[in-house]
Amino acid sequence: MSDVSGSELRALMARVPSVEKVMASAEFAALLAEYGRTQVLGAVREALDTWRAGAQSGDASVSALDVAQLKSAVEAALRKRHESRLRSVFNLTGTVLHTNLGRALLPDEAVQAVMKALTQPANLEFDLGTGKRGDRDDLIDELICELTGAEAATVVNNNAAAVLLTLSALASKKEVIVSRGELVEIGGAFRIPDIMSRAGAKLREVGTTNRTHLKDYEEAIGPQTALLMKVHASNYAISGFTKEVSLDEITPLAQARGLAVAVDLGSGTLVDLSQWGLPRETTVRETVEAGADLVTFSGDKLLGGPQAGLIVGRRDLIAKIKKHPLKRALRVGKLTLAALEPVLQLHRAPERLTERLTTLRLLTRAADDIRLAAERVQPALQHAVGERYAVTAEPMFSQIGSGALPVDVLPSYGLVVRMADGKRGGRQLLALEKMLREMARPVIGRIAEDALRLDLRCLEAADEAQLVEQLKGARA
Ligand SMILES: *Cc1c(COP(=O)(O)O)cnc(C)c1O
What we know:
By secondary structure, the protein is of the alpha/beta class. It has 20 helices and 13 strands. The chain folds into three domains: 6-82, no CATH class; 90-99 and 361-472, Aspartate Aminotransferase, domain 1 (Alpha-Beta Complex), CATH 3.90.1150.110; 108-356, Aspartate Aminotransferase, domain 2, CATH 3.40.640.10.
C-alpha cells in the first residue's frame, strides 16, 4: 500500500473511460452479442466500482484503466456467473450409488429418450388410440407389471413420496403396525415415524429393536388398524440375538384379518443380484409373490434409472392411491417417464444387464479390471500431487450405497495417497483432498486411515482419459 495523493487519484480517475464509451467500443461488441446489454452493463459498472474503490483506498496495484483491461475483467466475471452450479465430478468415493453425487448413472438409451422428450411433443397424457385425454401412468404400468408380477403400478417423484402417498391414501386417521426394528431413518429427512405422521397415520410400534414376533403383530391388530407395514432396514444391520417376522409369516395373518400389507423395499431390485456374485436382495417380484399387497421402491437405486418412486401391487389399492390428491402433487414429469421406460426395457434381457445397465456394470466390474485402471492412472496422479506424497495402487472395497446392502462390500482397486515421509500428514492430506475437489472437474475421494483413497470402480474408459488429462495439467 502506498498513498496515492489526491491529485494523482484525480488524474487516474479522469482517465477512466466512460460507461457509454466502453459499451460502444469494438472490444465489447462480442460480449454484447453473447450476454446482452443488461448483463454487460451491470458487469461494467461493477468492474468500474471495484476499480474506483481500489484507487480511493490507495491500493498501489491500481493503475490507469483502459478498455482492454476492463474487457477482460468483465468477460471473466460474466463467464463465472454463467458457470453451471451443477457440475460433473469424478466419483472416486467407492460408493457406486452415492446419494450426494446423484445416485444412478443412466444408460445411453435413457439419455436418448430424455433428449427426445425435451425437444419434441409427446403423448404424455394423450391416448393415441382414441384421441382423448390419457393417463401418464399408462405409458409404463404394463411394463412394470410384467417385470414385477404385480396387478397394477404407478410412479411418483421418489420413493419417499411413494411411501407418503401410500400411507396417506390407505391409512389416514388409522393405525399402521410396524416393527421397532424397522423404524429407520434413511439419511436426509426421511424417517418412517415422521412420514407416518405427515400422512396422518398413527404409528403402532411392535416388538423391540432386535426382536419382533408374529404374536406382536397379532396382538396389536385392532379396529383402527389399516395396514401392516414392513420397511427394508437399508442402511444398517442388526446382528446377534435377533428375530424379524418374515413377509411369509405376516401375509397369512393380514389376510385372515382382512388387512393389507405394504412393504417399503427401498432399493428394490428387479433381478437376483446373487447371479453375478453380488449380495442377495429380495426382488420386487418375490415380495409381490410372498403376498405383499403394495410394494414401494426407488427408481435411482439398484433399478439404475431416474429419480422416481414406484408403487406396485393390488389393483384396487393402486386405484385408490391414484385417486388421492397427493398423487397429482407428487407425479413425475415426462423426463422421468422417458428415462424410466428404457431402463425397464433393459431388464427384460437380464442376461445382458451387466453390460447395458450402467449401475449394474459398475457394481459387477471385476477388481482386476479396476486394478489395471489404477496402474494406468497412478503416474499422472503422482505427477499432480508432487513428491511430498506417495501414490500407490492398492486393493480396497467399494460399497453399493444408497442404503442398499450396507454390510456387504465389493472387492475393488484404487489409488492411495500417503505422505512420502511416512508421517500421518492430517493437514496435508486435507489440503490435497481440497486441491482435487477444486479441479476443473472435481475429483471426489475420501480420507481414511491416514491416506486419501480414490476408488476407481466408477471410472470408466472415457472418464479415465479425462482424469489423466486433467492430472497431467496439474501440479500441487
Ligand atoms: C432410500 C429409501 C427410501 C427413500 O427413497 P428415495 O427414492 O430416496 O426417496 C425410503 N425407504 C427406504 C427403505 C429406502 O431405502
